[in-house]
Write a structure and sequence with these properties.
Length: 527
């Protein structure tokens, strides 16, 4: 085998650092095309690693109370904050993101950890959660039932997406570790460096028990084979891979609990009573431009479909296009660049192919292919400039409601009345988030009632919250993240609700004296 000077990142499994025995996959700078590091897990004893995490890591974590595990999260936060500068350097090189876009991933992950550290502290020195009040089982009040939640005696396997190598780890790991469940993360290969480095810093700091946190870089082959009935798996990625996970014997036969976040054609809706230049109109335009450009549109929550009244179609197209024309695209190391690259040339090809497919149904309102790159070679870099498509009669379209192009692309669509708007948005068949732009609280309430059942989150932006709203695509740990149907049917975050995935509910039927003894080690669960 020829010598390769590109560093090979080690995996952390079974309580020790291990390098794969294969040549590995080379991660490259998506702007410069230069090799950075390699990842590989060939030859690793996966069974040993899962057993170590499940038994050694799980036992150590479950021996602690919620307050103690929350303190561990706080220590992880300190470790990560001490190395933030290094994470930003890695994100620029490996993810092609600007500093502001890297912050969404890096600081967003740290913030989520800190949030769960605070919420866990409030649970106190309990080791189980009391779910609801006691219920009498009959005439005799002495015999009652109490539902309880106990940490599952398994491991949490995370198979993550390439777009959030930091946040994607910590938004899952925070509730898992707080619950007392050890974590094994398999980051997406293209951007695995940042995940691996964060795990390395936490491991080197010695703030978590042995076996509590492991990282496997490279192929995901045979990972699902290791899962046992009390393990859980959480996946973020394509619907195609999600189908493979759901059909795997671990899930289909051994009933391993599974959480999926997949494709999502998220929508933005402008109130039919809005007018050109109104506050609601301007708020929609600004939010759409932000969602198209932040992280080059590589967010599972990014706006993909924009619904405006037919009479405002041209005005919205002009306003959005005018702002997109001012977006500088290229090398994120240049301070004048507003939007960096996609994560890889493979992803660039996928986005360009997707744009071409959507153009069979939609008009091009703003052509990103005409944008000159800053300090980036278009033949080498994975940069793709923002593109706005449009359709005046989207009810006649098909692909526009089915195909998500995972990049800086969105489609403007016209509607004639509220009922048509609801129907068109539902054509997405389930999404992570829909945002509503209106100055009328009654319309916002009506839109929420119509759309909440098909969306994990309804984000309403009105003039009175313009300065304080957290953003259509920004996932906050206190709110639910997930969505029905096409979006995968999963649920994450939502404050302490996230702990439910890592606990098992049981009904304990016993005397009130026994339930009193049980309650001494528990705390009421009030998510």
């Amino acid at each position: 085998m020829p010598h390769n000077d590109t560093p090979l990142l080690p995996n952390f499994l079974a309580g020790r650092w291990q390098t794969g025995s294969g040549h590995g996959t080379t991660l490259k700078d998506p702007v410069l095309g230069t090799p950075l590091v390699r990842v590989d897990n060939t030859g690793l004893d996966l069974a040993e690693g899962f057993h170590f995490a499940r038994d050694t890591g799980g036992s150590a974590l479950r021996a602690l109370t919620y307050r103690q595990r929350a303190a561990l999260l706080g220590e992880v936060v300190k470790v990560l904050q001490a190395h933030r500068d290094a994470y930003y350097e890695i994100a620029t090189a490996n993810c092609g993101t600007t500093k502001n876009d890297s912050a969404v991933d890096i600081d967003g992950g740290i913030f989520t950890l800190g949030t769960y550290a605070k919420q866990g502290e409030a649970l106190g020195d309990a080791k189980c959660l009391l779910d609801g009040e006691r219920i009498r089982m009959g005439k005799d009040p002495l015999f009652q039932t109490q539902h309880v939640l106990n940490p599952t005696r398994g491991v949490a396997l995370f198979i993550n997406a390439f777009n959030f190598p930091s946040w994607g780890l910590w938004e899952k790991a925070a509730p898992a570790l707080l619950s007392g469940v050890p974590v094994i993360v398999k980051p997406a290969t293209a951007t695995a460096w940042l995940t691996q480095r964060m795990v390395k810093d936490v491991v080197d700091a010695g703030v978590l028990p042995a076996g509590a946190l492991s990282v496997i870089c490279g192929s995901s082959a045979h990972l699902m084979d290791q899962l046992q009935p009390f393990d859980v798996v959480s996946f973020t990625g394509s619907a195609e891979t999600a189908r493979l996970i759901r059909s795997h014997p671990a899930v289909a036969q051994r009933s391993v609990r599974c959480n999926i976040e997949a494709d999502s054609l998220n929508s933005a809706l402008l109130d039919p009573s809005a007018t050109e230049g109104s506050e609601a109109f301007n708020l929609l335009v600004s939010e759409v431009v932000r969602e198209i450009t932040v992280k080059s549109g590589q967010k599972c929550t990014a706006i993909r479909r924009i619904f405006v009244p037919l009479e405002l179609f041209d005005a919205a197209a002009d306003a959005i296009s005018a702002k997109l024309a001012k977006i500088t695209v290229g090398n994120p190391r240049n301070e004048g660049v507003r939007m960096g690259a996609l994560v890889s040339l493979e992803q660039k090809r996928s986005v360009l192919h997707g744009i071409e497919a959507l153009c069979h149904e939609a008009l091009v309102l703003h052509d990103g292919s005409e944008t000159a790159l800053v300090d980036a070679d278009p033949t080498v870099s994975a940069c793709v400039a923002p593109t706005l498509l449009g359709h005046r009669d989207p009810g006649q379209a098909k692909l526009l409601h089915e195909v998500e192009v995972f990049g800086p692309v969105a489609t403007l669509m016209a509607y004639e009345d509220e009922d048509e708007a609801w129907d068109l948005i539902r054509r997405g068949e389930g999404s992570l988030v829909v945002s509503v732009y209106s100055e009328d609280p009654v319309f916002i309430a009506r839109a929420a009632a119509e759309l909440a059942d098909s969306h994990g989150r309804v984000h309403a932006i009105s003039p009175d919250v313009a300065a304080s709203q957290t953003g259509h695509g920004n996932v906050m740990p206190m709110s639910l993240h997930g969505g029905p149907g096409r979006a995968g049917g999963g649920e994450e975050l939502g404050g302490l609700r996230a702990l439910g995935f890592y606990h098992r509910r049981s009904a304990v039927q016993a005397s009130s004296a026994a339930l009193d003894a049980l309650a001494a080690s528990g705390v009421p669960f009030k998510p």
